[in-house]
Amino acid sequence: MVGYILSGILLLILAALACRRIWETRRLKRLSENMEDYLMGIGGNLPLSLREDTIAQVENAATEMQNRIDVAEERFRQEARRTSALTADISHQLKTPLASLRLYCEMDSSAHCDQQIAQIERMETLISSLLRLEKLCADGYEFTFEEHNIRQMILKDWEQMRSLWPEKTLTVEGEAVIRCDEKWLSEAFRNLIKNACEHTAENGHIRIFMEQTDRFFYCTLEDDGGGADPKDLPHLFDRFYRAKNQSSKGAGLGLAIVKEIIYRHHGQILAQNAKKGLKFTISIPVLDMINK
Questions:
Q1: Which of 290, 228, 215, 226 is closest to 255 using CA atoms?
Q2: What pTM value is reported for the model?
Q3: In CA terms, which of 87, 148, 185, 214 is 20 to 30 Å from 28?
């Protein structure tokens, strides 16, 4: 009889330990999912635990980490807003003399009038692009997220661009429908396609492949332009950066704007050399809870 009682007590203890283990495993899994969502920019605040166990220490350490990250990000946003305001002031001050210079050049009709006006237009483009980038970095634009077919969006943009590069070929493979800001994500793809067209031969080929999972949208854009110097790859998204063999045309801000747009979609973009050219890889989370 005593043996049955002891066996029953032992079974109860084992069952309790098993239940506790399952409960702790679920807590750790929930914490891991919450941390992953937070790092992707789609989760809320991590809860503070009032329990007095080992897992609670981990939960509270994660909450403290989140608080420190939030404080650092707010400081960064404040600095970005100050930089954006300064850039806007400088841009505004430069526009008036540039407009005057253009007027005087057109009135003088000198031998170098066309070159002067071209340089003025280049400066105006640079100022506009820089202001646009700084405003993006400072959250100065409101993004509207709705479901859009990415394949149709890219093909529509290419129809408008292909007259500039009639000998180029663009191939789009795969389908994806994600929540995004169509205007801005479309601009990001236009900049990537433009960059590929400018760095490939006259009959160059650009290939875009996309796929969608339950949680992510993946897209690669690859050209056959020979790729970039490995030393240049880490700096391709830096503002004003120019590779050694790059043309002097352009403001040097296109890829920096692309990176910021992808970041505003809570995503990432990576550049690497492929077999025949340069390859950009984009990943964007597609969870329904993304709302900004």
A1: 228
A2: 0.67
A3: 214
